[in-house]
Amino acid sequence: HIHIAWTPGHHDIPGNEHVDLEAKSAAEGHSSPSDTLPSLLHSPLPKSVAALRAHRTKSDRLRRQGASLVVQLRSGAVGLNAFLKKIKQAPNALCQLCREPETVPHFLFFCRRFREQR
Questions:
Q1: CA atoms of 95 and 107, how far apart (whole Å)
Q2: Which of 53, 114, 104 is nearest to 82 (CA)?
Q3: CB 90 within 8 A of CB 84
Q4: What is the residue-wise DSSP string for 31-62?
Q5: Per residue in 21-79, pLDDT tens?
Q6: What is the pTM of this model?
């Protein structure tokens, strides 16, 4: 049994907003001059995940979208009626044109709607 609850991370903690702003500034590379820091901290901080995401190129996003689509198609958890019916988001599992179950194989190989594209 798993219980998930939302808790406010900054609620009623004095100084927490200021510390959060300083941490974000440091993650963006705006840190104290290195000569004022202990020698262990002279090298720059690693980029945060958010900063790395902000600098993705269009081709990176396309590769990610393609990978996501492959996972959806292989798992069957994709916006086709067979899956949508399972999660109660479609009234039936049938392809509207062919009246066959709208599964990934149907969509990719058999559906008359995409005959020309194949």
A1: 9
A2: 104
A3: yes
A4: ---GGGS-GGG-SPPPPPHHHHHHT--HHHHH
A5: 888 887 777 777 777 877 777 776 667 777 777 777 777 767 888 889 999 999 999 99
A6: 0.48
